[in-house]
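Need a sequence for this fold. Nothing fancy.
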């Protein structure tokens, strides 16, 4: 009998706390739907008290996403718990996840309370959550740096107050695997219901690169839920990477004797979706989902692979849903074939979205001989996931030569108006961005700029992501084109369009840079 390990995905909560990530409701919903297809057991959809936007995202996901339990995070205070319940209550199955810090340093310096008060807050929080739903998770934050006796006391109190899941976080990623394994063992000796009637969860951060290792030793010691994120996103160095944990348990099934409900062939697609919506690219040599994870370059390796793939491949790319890139559609493909193919890739577009995506596909087919799945995914990302396009790019011209200051002329359509602006800049991209900002009347600070090629060929599309700070908020923009300057203009405009109509962040000075 293999043991079932529950996968609790916190990409939309801890993952979204990664610096610079700011997803809108539609993007979060799309991620949650993909997580449901991936087969996670729990989606932690957000921290509803933190902002109206987070509340709306969690409640939309609770209403629309079927399958996984939908969890909302709450500090151990009434207002947070009430708000979390409001947000998750419409789900098929809802969970409230409440937490309070238990290490001396957090209790004294951050909470400025004594230990008795902290225990009372934990008990009251769990009891209040229990009044709303049977499924209540409790986390003693910074558990790995907490006094063991106190940890046992507060976990006992949480269970007695009705917690059905106890989560042990290594909040600052400090534990060594043998220490963490020992902590789990000792907790289970003192509280025998952990990992049995009460689910025992772990939540490991990656500050020392040990998040996956620590989660695995905990599972080997009887933990039956792992909290993790796609691509290892999360606070600071991130959380344990879902794809690594799952593929370790899958590839080493006979040694580990653990199973999950994850459909592994959805992993690659999920990783790409998260990367494209968050703007966090995946490092080339990242385990499982990095571009090179299945690439073999040395002569000896490729020779071995040609003779027998298992000489150098411990898992197949197909296992994570990574099919060979192949020509799938061409210039002559019609709307019907295009739609059928999108459906095969898991995208259900409404008719207006389909029209836009098909138009983009036809334009691309004129420029690029081979259109692959990656190209199609990029089109969907760019054309469909845009916010209302207040400004549309109508015309772009750039003049740039050695020893001359580059200039860009841009024409943007806003309704019936055609607005034109010429600017110079430090480079052609800078000139383009300045012209767009001037037309939209939106000064912006460029926080990051990233360009990559979608496929490997010379006629590949450039995929540009920019992170802009506008009126005290961050906006991610993405644009694709076979012309990198045009892709940059589209990405910049995408971020500007997201910012249109959004009021400045409270307490922030309007940024007048650029
Ligand atoms: O890292 C942490 O301690 C957390 C808790 C809220 C579970 O994210
Ligand atoms: Zn965390």
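Here you go.
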């Amino acid at each position: 009998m293999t043991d079932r390990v529950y996968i609790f995905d916190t990409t939309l909560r801890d993952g979204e706390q990664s610096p610079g990530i700011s997803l809108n409701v539609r993007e979060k919903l799309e991620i949650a739907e993909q997580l449901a297809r991936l087969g996670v057991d729990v989606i932690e959809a957000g921290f509803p008290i933190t902002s109206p936007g987070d509340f709306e995202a969690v409640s939309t996901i609770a209403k629309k996403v079927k399958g996984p339990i939908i969890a909302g995070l709450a500090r151990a205070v009434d207002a947070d718990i009430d708000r979390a319940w409001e947000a998750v209550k419409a789900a098929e199955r809802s969970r409230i996840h409440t937490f309070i810090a238990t290490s001396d340093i957090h209790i004294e310096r951050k909470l400025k309370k004594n230990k008795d008060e902290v225990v009372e807050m934990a008990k009251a929080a769990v009891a209040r959550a229990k009044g709303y739903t049977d499924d209540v998770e409790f986390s003693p934050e910074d558990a790995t740096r907490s006094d063991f006796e106190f940890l046992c006391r507060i976990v006992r109190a949480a269970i007695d107050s009705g917690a059905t899941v106890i989560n042990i976080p290594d909040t600052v990623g400090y534990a060594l695997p043998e220490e963490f394994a020992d902590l789990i063992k000792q907790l289970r000796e003192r509280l025998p219901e952990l990992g049995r009637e009460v689910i025992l969860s772990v939540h490991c951060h990656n500050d020392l690169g040990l998040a996956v290792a620590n989660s695995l030793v905990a599972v080997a010691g009887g933990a039956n839920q792992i909290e993790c994120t796609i691509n290892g996103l999360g606070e600071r160095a991130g959380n344990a990477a879902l794809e690594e944990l799952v593929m370790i348990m899958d590839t080493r099934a006979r040694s580990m004797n653990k199973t999950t409900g994850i459909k592994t062939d959805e992993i690659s697609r999920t990783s790409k979706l998260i990367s494209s919506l968050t703007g966090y690219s995946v490092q080339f040599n990242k385990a499982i989902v990095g571009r090179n994870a299945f690439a073999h370059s040395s002569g000896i390796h490729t020779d071995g692979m040609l003779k027998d793939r298992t000489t150098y491949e411990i898992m197949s790319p197909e296992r994570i849903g990574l099919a060979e890139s192949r020509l799938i559609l061409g210039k002559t493909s019609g709307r019907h074939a295009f739609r059928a193919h999108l459906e095969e890739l898991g995208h259900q577009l409404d008719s207006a979205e389909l029209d836009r995506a098909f138009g983009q596909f036809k334009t691309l087919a004129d420029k690029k001989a081979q259109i692959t799945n990656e190209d199609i995914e990029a089109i969907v990302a760019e054309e469909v996931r845009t916010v209302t396009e207040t400004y549309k790019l109508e015309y772009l011209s750039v003049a740039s030569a050695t020893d001359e200051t580059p200039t860009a002329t841009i024409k943007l359509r806003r309704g019936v108006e055609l607005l034109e602006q010429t600017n110079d800049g430090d480079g052609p991209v800078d000139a383009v961005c300045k012209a767009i900002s001037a037309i939209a009347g939106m000064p912006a600070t460029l926080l990051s700029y990233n360009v990559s090629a979608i496929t490997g060929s010379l006629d590949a599309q450039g995929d540009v992501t920019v992170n802009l700070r506008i009126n005290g908020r961050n906006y991610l923009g993405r644009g694709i084109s076979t012309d990198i300057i045009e892709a940059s203009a589209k990405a910049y405009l995408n971020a500007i369009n997201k910012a249109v109509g959004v009021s400045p962040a409270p307490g922030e000075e309007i940024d007048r840079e650029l």
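For context: Residues 14, 99, 139, 141, 167, 169, 171, 203, 205 surround 3-methyl-2-oxobutanoic acid (ligand 1) (CB under 6 Å).
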